[in-house]
Amino acid sequence: MNLDYSQTAVGQTKALSEVLHALYLAQPVIVIFTSLYFAQEFVKSGMRTNFLTVSNRKAWLAGKFLFLDLLLLVLYSVMIGSCFLVMLARFDLSFSWSLLEKFLYYSSFGLLSNIFLAFLTAGLALLFQSWVVPVSVLFPLLVGLSRLLATFIKEAKYLPDLATLNLFEYEGLQHSIDLSGLGIQLLWLALVWSSAIFLTLKRDVR
């Protein structure tokens, strides 16, 4: 009897590995998208106009934060749904609830890392009032600079992208799930956002 490779555990492993790899490769796109969205306020004195219109800067920040939450929720919902459908078609897999559960479980870690990275990008854009800075800093890291640095500097493993690299490796996640990288990303978020919020609330736009 011929065994359908696509339906075996080996076939599902390869499919899920490809999905996590795709989520990792999506990070540069997320960085560019988030930086452009958050930095639009700084084009043609948009931030000055908003601050003069909305006197409560905390409310403005909360609104931007919540809208980014909603935007990322919609974006990643579409992305995850598309990834699952493409995975079924590309690897000729039959739909099953167990496969969907496994897909959502293992992709959730990488998805959370991507969301943290998006908020880190937004924080940098707010801190420096520019989309150029977050893209200039994070994009090179994501396309290979961080790995290059890691070969010379062991502390490079604490960079926000390398810290969670293990969450995009399916075979590694099957053996153990180390979430310490998410904690490192949270520390980066706390540092950047606390600085960005402080300067935004104190900034004179007149």
Short description:
The chain is mainly alpha-helical. It is built from 8 helices and no strands. The N and C termini lie far apart (78 Å).
Structure explained in plain terms:
By secondary structure, the protein is mostly helical. It is 74% helix and 0% strand. α5 (97-128) packs across α6 (132-150) and α5 (97-128) packs parallel to α8. The protein is globular.
What is the 3D form? globular
User: What is the number of independent domains?
Assistant: 1
Give me the secondary-structure category: mainly alpha
Number of strands: 0
- The SSE string, one letter per element, is HHHHHHHH
Strand content range: under 5%
- Tell me the Rg in angstroms: 20 Å
**First CA to last CA: what distance?**
78 Å
Mean pLDDT: 86
Instruction: State the helical fraction.
Output: over 70%
Number of helices: 8
